[in-house]
């Protein structure tokens, strides 16, 4: 029993590890993309465009950060986009009915967290594979959202609430400050806490983790709840940014979030990756899409490019794992 525990509970992961090297390579890739776009487009290095890239990357990161913890356990949450949509619509309704942005924010976070918890229950108590459980939840949430909204659109929220997604502080978009806060929290949680190390252990070997005394079911409930709550947070940011909510608000959000996680170096097989890497992944993806817009590439090509990037990220992950074996 002791030997298993030693194997599972490795020393705290630091930025002097293999993870740090992978993050460094991705930072170089981001800088290379910036250099290429700066040459191809005179508008890329403008202050307005740089701030827009940071804002868009932060919106993707809010969803992808919680999803990272799920993927670290070798799971997947396909419901995050649909979760954003339902949470945004319910939060928007609460704000309209009560006139209280604070109550709307709490409602959006709670709605997202409850959905995440239900995903965790299906994975742990019902033993449904995460792909199937969250894919089914995606359709359930889509159905509920379209039924709830009945074709209507909510719009016109208080100016103070809108500052969350579209406001500036000292020249930087407010979502960027929120990104820095949650990037710090996520990194410290995953790298420096016992719970974080247990999440890595579960992804590396769930059987050994269970035998070593790690409460696997509780930790899985935790990561799915966190993923759902971060989707709830993203719903608030999107709601305040767009100043409107409709049933299809989250349909295009799931694939970019998954792409950011994989581009950032988190392995679909679990146990490898960092929240900071996911931030770099979100930045790289945003830079690519931003570059396509600046170069007047049709928006119809953007899903294709995102899909190719995801396939390449998974292929590189599998190739790296084979070399390590």
UniProtKB/TrEMBL annotation:
GO terms for cellular component: plasma membrane. Signal peptide: none annotated. One of its GO terms (molecular function) is transmembrane transporter activity. It is a multi-pass membrane protein. CDD domains: TM_PBP1_transp_AraH_like. Keywords: Cell inner membrane, Cell membrane, Membrane, Transmembrane, Transmembrane helix, Transport. It is found in: Cell membrane. InterPro entries: ABC_transp_permease (IPR001851). It holds the Pfam family BPD_transp_2. The chain crosses the membrane at residues 23-45, 57-76, 102-121, 128-148, 168-190, 220-240, 276-295, 301-318. PANTHER family: ABC TRANSPORTER PERMEASE PROTEIN YPHD-RELATED, ABC TRANSPORTER PERMEASE PROTEIN YPHD-RELATED-RELATED. This is Monosaccharide ABC transporter membrane protein (CUT2 family).
